[in-house]
Amino acid sequence: MAKFTRLMFKNLLRTRRRTLLTILSIAVALFMFAVLVSLPTFANQMLADTASSVRIISRTKMGFAYPLPEAYKLKIATLPHVVAVAALVIYGGIYHEARDQFPSVATDAEEIGMWSDWGLTGVDEFKKIKTACLVAQGTMRRFNLHVGQQIELRGTVYPFNVTLTIVGTIAKGPVPSFLIFRRDYFEEAAGNAGIVHEFWVRTDDSRVVPEVAAAIDNQFANSPAETRSASEAAAVGSILGRYRIFMRLAAFLGLVAVVAIGLVAANTAAMSIRERRSEIAVMRSIGFPSGMILSLLVGESLIVALSGGAIGCGVAFGLFKVFALNADALGPFVSLHVPPFVLAETLGVAALIGLFSAYVPARAAAKRSIVETLRLVD
Questions:
Q1: Which residues make Cβ contacts (< 8 Å) with residue 195, sequence separation at least 6?
Q2: DSSP 12-78
Q3: 276-280 — which CB contacts under 8 Å span 24+ positions?
Q4: Which pairing describes strands 179-182 and 132-136: parallel, antiparallel, or unpaired?
Q5: Which residue in 6, 158, 278, 297 is deepest, having the highest Cβ count within 10 Å?
Q6: CA distance 42 to 150
Q7: Residue range 233-282, pLDDT digits in tens
Q8: Residue 370 CB coordination number (10 Å)
């Protein structure tokens, strides 16, 4: 087996330029395929991750960041199946320069357990220190922050600054870069109590989330500040829904790229095999079976295609890693990555390209009569 593998590599290295260009063309196409297929896959994964969430987000019907009465918190807490209610204020904030913006919100210290599944650390300190904040790990990496450090944010939504002490981190959450601090400190800095933009509600069972969301909205129907409540999954879905057409187009373009490069690879394989007709005839005349020759030719094509697929997958995987480390403030799509099964899928597509592009011409060449083949060679 080893000697046949060496033979395949020697044959490929005889036309180095063609082999290299074919590998690179397949790599480019499969890089595009891996990237574009990852977009809808990532969106579906985000929805799946929040599908079993027991949380509800309640906002005013007026739109994002409009205030709600703080008194709603106690009324929501009395509804059946409601376990906890956390009031949230959207602060905004700039760390150093205008480009250094990331989401920052303030919430009730005693309700920080609302997001315990986000991998919070420093919760006890958060409850004790009024200026405490928890920072997402993406933000910590981006600005080289550390626990115990004091930072100042300049207000964007509100015209005042806040000075915060990092007491813990957030391992995961809705976006890779954000910060949570205490609402009582926000109210002290604002000089105005009772500001609330959202209520996050935790229920005792994910199955009752639609029922509780409807009960919240019914409770405040026809009031001066009506609410629009939805499950966490629905909130994420509404954001991703804006990009749904784009994601479908991306998946279609990925398929088009694969089909196009498959045709190019098939043409290249046919030309290569045509040029080697006399060599194939000689191999058959000295005793190489047709099946062995077919296997060698298809094997060469598979090596080229899988090499291109590996390069394409590697570049896509590495690019997303670098992008995620250096652009944390751009929202949820910054955490986009190439899932392992998409990498496997891409390598599988590479194998299919290698197999089907060479099989038909290789089979024809391996089965052709030796005398007829030599007669056709100029």
A1: 67, 70, 89, 186, 187
A2: HHHTHHHHHHHHHHHHHHHHHHHHHHHHHHHHHHHHHHHHT--EEEEEETT-TT--B-TTHHHHHHT
A3: 276/365, 277/365, 277/368, 277/373, 277/376, 277/377, 278/373, 278/374, 278/377, 280/365, 280/366, 280/368, 280/373
A4: antiparallel
A5: 297
A6: 35
A7: 776 666 555 566 776 777 777 778 778 877 877 777 777 777 776 776 76
A8: 13
Burial string for 48-65 (b: 16+ CB within 10 Å, else e) reads eebeebbbbbbbbeeeee
Q: Token digits for 241? A: 């829904």
Name 237's Cβ contacts closer than 8 Å, sequence gap at least 6. Answer: 47
Dist. CA 284–CA 296, nearest whole Å:
13
In angstroms, how far is CA 204 from the centroid of its own chain?
30
Residue 25 CA to chain centroid, in angstroms? Answer: 25
- Three-state secondary structure readout of 196-217: ECEEEEEECCHHHHHHHHHHHH
Q: Is 242 exposed, middle or buried (0-12, 13-18, 19+ CB in 10 A)?
A: exposed
Tokens of 97: 């320069």
- The residue type of 58 is S
Is the Cβ–Cβ distance between 190 and 160 less than 8 Å? yes
Exposure b/e, 95-119, CB count within 10 A at least 16 = b:
beeeeebbbbbbbbbebbebbeebe
* Order of strands across the sheet that contains 55-60: 150-153, 162-170, 132-136, 179-182, 104-107, 82-90, 198-203, 55-60, 227-231
Token reading at 324: 């995620």
Terminal-residue alpha carbon distance, the chain: 33
Amino acid at residue number 206: S
- Name, in order, each residue with C-beta under 8 angstroms of 44's C-beta and a sequence gap of 6 or more: none
pLDDT, position 125: 95
What is the tens place of the pLDDT at every residue in 174-228?
Answer: 666 789 999 999 999 988 888 899 999 999 988 898 899 999 999 999 888 899 9
The b/e string for 291-330 (b: 16+ C-beta within 10 A; e otherwise) is: eebbbbbbbbbbbbbbbbbbbbbebbbeebeebbeeebbe
